[in-house]
Every structure is written in C-alpha cells, then in structure tokens.
Automatic annotation (TrEMBL):
Record keyword Glycosyltransferase present: yes
Protein name in the entry: Type 2 lactosamine alpha-2,3-sialyltransferase
Enzyme Commission number, as recorded: 2.4.3.6
Function: Transfers the sialyl residue from CMP-N-acetyl-beta-neuraminate to the terminal galactose residue on sugar chains of glycoproteins and glycolipids. It's alpha-2,3-sialyltransferase activity is specific toward type II glycan chains (Galbeta1-4GlcNAc) on glycoproteins and glycolipids such as neolactosides nLc4Cer and nLc6Cer, whose sialyl-products serve as precursors for the Lewis X antigen. Critically involved in the synthesis of functional selectin ligands needed for neutrophil recruitment during inflammation and lymphocyte homing to the lymph nodes.
Keyword entries, A-Z: Glycoprotein, Glycosyltransferase, Golgi apparatus, Membrane, Signal-anchor, Transferase, Transmembrane, Transmembrane helix
Listed InterPro entries: Glyco_trans_29, Glycosyltransferase_29, GT29-like_sf, Sialyl_trans
Top EC category: transferase
Classification of source organism: Eukaryota, Metazoa, Chordata, Craniata, Vertebrata
Major place of residence: Golgi
Keyword DNA-binding: no
Cellular compartment(s): Golgi apparatus membrane
Disulphide connectivity of cysteines: C118-C271
Species the sequence originates in: Rhinolophus ferrumequinum
CC annotations in GO: Golgi membrane
Protein family per UniProt: Belongs to the glycosyltransferase 29 family.
Gene designation per UniProt: ST3GAL6
Length: 331
C-alpha cells in the first residue's frame, strides 16, 4: 500500500514538472545560473569566505547575459523591481544594450585562480600621499570605480585594473585612460543609462537629456570589455547591507548606494577575501580632499541628497570590526 502511494506521489510530481515546463515553455534542462563562469571550466573555491553569512547566493553570476536575461531576471526577482534595483519596466532597454555586448563572462578563459584575493579601491582623499600602489597591484583582482585615475597616480593606487564600475556621468572619455585588460561594468541607475550604452555601441546620436551631468559621448572601452551589472547586486547593497527602507518618504529623494558600496557587494560575490583601500570620509574638515585626484572637497559629498553616508559608514565600520574585510588605509 505504501509503495503504491509513493509511486502515485512520485508520478504526480513528475507530471506536474512536465506540465509546468510545457505550460511555461521552459527548457526542461535549464538550471538556475548559479555558476560563476559561463563558458570556462568551473573553478570552485572550497573554503568559505569570512563574509559568507552576508550572502544569499554563494555562487552568483554578477553580469547579465543576453541569452538568458529574462529567465535570470525572473529567477532572482529582478522583474519585480524598477531600476535601479531591478529590470521591471526597462526590460527592453536591458535587452537592447545586452544585444550589443560580446561577452558576459566574469574572468577570462585562462584564469585558473579558484580563490580570489581582491582589493576594492575607493576614490577617497585618504589615498593621497600614501604609497599603496605596489600593494594594490599585488592582488588577484583589483576593483576600481568611476573616473578614479591610475594614470599619474601609480604610486598611490597602482597600475592594474581588473574591473571598473561606471555609469554614463562618471565614465572616462579620454582615450589616454584606456586599458585593454580592464572589464568595464555599467551600473545602470535609470533607463537612460542603458539607452546611452546602446546608442554609443550602435554609433547612433547620443541624447544627453535626462542625465544629472553631461554623460560621456564616446566609449574608451571596446564591446568585448563591457558588462552590465545585474541589478540584484545593487538591490542587495541597498536592502540587505545598508538596510534601506523599501519606500522612501515623499519628502526625501530616494537614496542609492554609492558605487563604492556596490563595488564591495560585487566583490563579496566573486572573491574569497576582500580588502579595502580609499574608503574614508572626513566630515569634520569640509575642505579636505574628497578624492585622491582632482580638486573636489568634502563639502561636495555632504551636500549629496542621493546617498545615505551615515548608513554606509556604519556598514563599513561593521564589516571592518567583524574582520569580513581588511582596511588597507589603516594608519
Ligand atoms: C600631500 O603632500 C603634499 C606635498 O608633500 C602636500 O602639499 C599636501 O598637503 C599633502 N596632502 C595631503 C592630503 O596630505
Ligand atoms: C595587460 O596584460 C598584458 C598581458 O598580461 C600585460 O603585458 C600588459 O602590461 C597589461 N597592460 C596593462 C595596462 O595592465
Ligand atoms: C579630519 O580632519 C581634521 C582636520 O583636518 C583632522 O584634525 C582630523 O584628525 C581628521 N579626522 C580623521 C578621522 O582623520
Ligand atoms: C586643481 O587646482 C589647481 C590649482 O588651482 C589647478 O591647476 C588644476 O588644474 C585643478 N585641477 C582640476 C582637475 O581641476
Ligand atoms: C540613513 O541611515 C541611517 C542608518 O541606517 C538611518 O538612521 C537614517 O534615518 C537614514 N537617513 C536617511 C535620510 O534616510
Ligand atoms: C580605515 O582606516 C583609516 C585609518 O585608521 C580610517 O581613518 C578610516 O576611517 C578607515 N576606513 C573605514 C572605512 O573605516
């Protein structure tokens, strides 16, 4: 009797699965995209990173791929949130931009380091007059952001760049900053950002309306170097790491995590060990340099209504105290 019941139960489960696949037109063999690399042989790091407890998916592919964009979006609930934390209402823009990219791979095919040691280099003025360049260059993976230059600052910040996160208003446009070894990651905050990338890659006219600052009008990166960050990473940074509310009061501008925190969240998903350099704001001196380059001062950051710097500082303090990361700009 029990054998019958088990058999009936199993065939019911099987039938349900088959029907589900037929009804939803899904590929029966499709499995969630949890592997870190799409094409390469799988290099899994067996030991757990210190910050593993913060992650919901231990093996998450951080870049969107044209081929399975829709499936991935629904698997990770990206289709339930609007930009910048999801793809709902902008799926067509994502699809267009992705159609012009040549790869969504994480590391190149010759990469064979299973447990990556990474450094996330913030653009903070704290890097000025420090000589961390050689130390930074010694990591497996070096993540930089926006227009923080390497050129002319090699002693302070090193020469190598594995990943650089950018958005249209922050991207380099001077070809002197090109580096064929860098993978440039678009962090999309609004539909315009994807449209901008698509227009640049198709050689169309760039519509510069809808940006808070003039966007780059040419790309110094070749299509093979460009990726689009999965908005899940930004959502994770906002809701799970910075504990942003799901809805902001009408009187406030909705806050976004800074690129620095997004870069750390990305590092948590692809690295085994994460070190930080250049993450520091000194609000007690509004005239102190904001970045290790240029002339901007802290006063610029304190006026910023789009970020919650308090929440970010609490988060950084917490992950440093818990030894999830190491602060290289420690005196
Ligand atoms: C860096 O060094 C230069 C020259 O020694 C000095 O003028 C400048 O004030 C220093 N900057 C910082 C942020 O310490
Ligand atoms: C890029 O990588 C090649 C091969 O590893 C290396 O020879 C070259 O110096 C690198 N260029 C930069 C700018 O890092
Ligand atoms: C911030 O800047 C002030 C003024 O330059 C300085 O006295 C103070 O030590 C700095 N604070 C930190 C935490 O570096
Ligand atoms: C910063 O200020 C100096 C001196 O005022 C000026 O020569 C330089 O061009 C400025 N740099 C930038 C990036 O604006
Ligand atoms: C910023 O974050 C802190 C800490 O999570 C929170 O107490 C504060 O209300 C937030 N401020 C704004 C303006 O959202
Ligand atoms: C890293 O260490 C430096 C020096 O002690 C400190 O000023 C800075 O605030 C630290 N960074 C963070 C994010 O706590």
């Amino acid at each position: 009797m029990r054998g019958y019941l088990v058999a009936i139960f199993l065939s019911a489960v099987f039938l349900y699965y088959v029907l589900h696949c037929i009804l939803w037109g899904a590929n029966v063999y499709w499995v969630p995209p949890v592997e870190m690399k799409r094409r390469n042989k799988i290099q899994t790091c067996l030991s757990k990173p210190a910050f593993a407890s913060l992650l919901r998916f231990q093996q998450f592919h951080p870049f969107l791929c044209a081929a399975d964009f829709k499936k991935v979006a629904s698997f990770y609930d990206n289709d339930k949130f609007d930009l910048p934390y999801g793809t709902r209402t902008s799926a067509e823009y994502f699809r267009l931009a992705l159609s012009k990219l040549q790869s969504c791979d994480l590391f190149d095919e010759f990469d064979n380091v299973p447990c990556k040691k990474c450094v996330v280099v913030g653009n903070g003025g704290v890097l000025k007059n420090k000589t961390l360049g050689e130390t930074i260059d010694s990591y497996d993976v070096i993540i930089r952001m926006n227009n923080g230059p390497v050129l002319g600052h090699e002693e302070e910040v090193g020469r190598r760049t594995t990943f650089r996160l950018f958005y249209p208003e922050s991207v380099f446009s001077d070809p002197k900053h090109s580096d064929p070894n860098t993978t440039a990651i678009l962090t999309a905050f609004k539909p315009h950002d994807l449209k901008w990338l698509w227009e640049l890659l198709t050689g169309g006219k760039i519509n510069t309306n809808g940006f808070w600052k003039k966007p780059g009008l040419n790309l110094i990166y070749k299509p093979y170097q460009i990726r689009i960050l999965d908005p899940y990473i930004i959502r994770m940074a906002a809701y799970e790491l910075l504990n942003f509310p799901k809805v902001f009061p009408k009187s406030q501008k909705p806050k976004h995590p800074t690129t620095g925190i997004i870069a750390i969240t990305l590092a948590f998903h692809i690295c085994h060990e994460v070190h930080l350099a250049g993450f520091k704001y000194n609000f007690s001196d509004l005239k102190s340099p904001l970045h290790y380059y240029g002339n901007a001062t802290m006063s610029l950051m304190s006026q910023n209504a789009y970020h919650n710097v308090t929440a970010e500082q609490l988060f950084l303090k917490d992950i440093i105290e818990k030894n999830f990361v190491i602060n290289l700009t420690q005196d």
